[in-house]
Fold this sequence. Notes:
two-stranded antiparallel sheet; single chain; 29% helix
Amino acid sequence: xxxxCSKCGRVHEHNYNCKAIIIKNSGxxxxxxxxxxxxxxxxxxxxxxxxxxxxxxxxxxxxxYGRIYNNSIEVHHIESIIEAYELRLEEGxxxxxxxxxxxxxxxxxxxxxxxxxxxxx
Length: 121
């Protein structure tokens, strides 16, 4: 029997012990930024711009045909805060995604170009 791994996101046999490590650093620059008022305001602006909908789900992209995951929407940095800190508040670098697609985007399973093109539509 297969199971989805909470550590790496892959599918393993149910008895497989995944060696992936989940690193959470509450004192990181990106986590500190996420607690700022500037981020909270910008997140709301992007959420309103996208009408509170996952931009991939509404286009039926990346395994969403017949399923819509719009119950838990997050704002995703296309270029990550670590890679491009100067873009952290640029609306052209932010898109609303459901948790399912946000995890896929973080793992690189959704090309950044696809996400950027959606914002420019």
